[in-house]
Write a structure and sequence with these properties.
By secondary structure, the protein is of the alpha/beta class. The protein contains 14 helices and 10 strands. The strands form 2 sheets. The chain has an 8-stranded mixed sheet, with helices on both faces. Helix 3 packs parallel to helix 4 and helix 7 (179-201) packs across helix 13 (296-305). The longest helix has 23 residues, at 179-201.
Length: 326
């Protein structure tokens, strides 16, 4: 499997960062923006306003023509989780049969309860779905700072080929076949990062933050087990690794949303449109209920976002749960 030409669909911060990383890996890269105006601006300035002080490599071709993906050996689909179906559907006519399409979003589709590779399989039948996830901030990747992620596909040889095609000394993808585990880790940790941000925004202290992260990870493990994830995947980069990163840094949109909520902002006015976890919380808890999985932290986040309970009420409910063995 020769993967020399790669298209990146989505010219936001993460798409731009990945395009830079792929050029460092020696690939021919086309970055596909949603609007012609955005593509023109990026071609002329070699910059993305969402990534200040980061220059778009001169070797990256920039276009708004989704048909440019027809020449690609693989495609990275770098759009928000709730927009992935529309993007995959638009991409579908340009794909050759068996072209790997790598989802780079961390979420679950609301309404359908579909994971990202399932959405790709339904919307672009010619595609070979894969998923990339792990502890990574766009600014770090764009600048070439050391980063490790997980790249999963059902077929081991495909996963290996994809990892080798996007990897470089500064961007290290570990390949895996546990697609579901990688998807669950990325989706669930976003919800838990909102909870961690609430703890910080409310000034509950480092001890509470550590307890929240640990108990949140236990929830992630329970949910993953119920939906077929492997334990070693959830304790790896795309699970525990990503959780540690996003539960502790204001660079995380989900953590920052939680901080704003903890300081008194109302949902809808706290930047939740930029945080994947705000859309995932409700579907995650619904899926947990469907398989009788207890997710008290995630459920509290969903209730807060839907304004069914106050921040203080959610904290009190969690602290007064019956004591039990760990």
């Amino acid at each position: 499997m020769r993967l020399e030409r790669i298209a990146v669909v989505g010219a936001g911060a993460w798409g731009t960062a990945l395009a830079n990383a792929l050029v460092r890996a020696g690939r021919a890269v086309t970055l596909i923006a949603r609007r012609e105006a955005a593509a023109t601006a990026m071609r002329e300035s070699r910059a993305n306003p969402r990534l200040p002080d980061v220059r778009l490599d001169e070797r990256i071709a920039v276009t708004a023509d989704i048909g440019a993906a027809a020449d690609a050996d693989a495609v990275l689909l770098v759009v928000p989780a709730q927009s992935l179906r529309a993007a995959a559907s638009a991409l579908a006519p340009a794909l050759r049969h068996g072209t790997p399409v790598i989802a780079c979003a961390k979420g679950i589709e609301r309404g359908t309860r579909k994971f990202m590779t399932e959405v790709i399989a339904e919307s672009a039948p010619a595609a070979l779905p894969a998923i990339l996830s792990g502890p990574s901030f766009a600014a770090d990747v764009a600048r070439g700072l050391p980063t490790a992620v997980t790249l999963a596909a059902r077929d081991r040889k495909v996963a290996e080929a994809l990892a080798h095609s996007v990897g470089s000394p500064s961007f290290r993808p570990y390949h895996a076949t546990d697609v579901r585990g990688v998807e669950i880790g990325g989706a669930a940790k976003n919800v838990l990062a909102i909870a961690a941000g609430i703890v910080t925004g409310r000034g509950l202290g480092a001890s509470a933050a550590a307890a929240l992260t640990t108990r949140g990870f236990a929830e992630l493990m329970r949910f993953g087990e119920a939906y077929g994830a492997r334990g070693e995947t959830l304790t790896g980069l795309s699970g525990l690794g990503d959780l540690i990163l996003t539960c502790s840094s204001p660079q995380s949109r989900n953590f920052s949303l939680g901080v704003a909520l903890g300081r008194g902002a109302r949902p809808g006015a706290a930047g939740d449109k930029l945080a994947e976890g705000a859309f995932t919380a409700a579907v995650l808890t619904d899926m947990a209920l469907a398989r009788d999985v207890d997710l008290p932290v995630a459920a509290a986040v969903a209730a807060v976002l839907e304004e069914r309970i106050s921040i203080d009420g959610a904290i009190e409910a969690l602290l007064t749960r019956p004591l039990k063995g760990e």
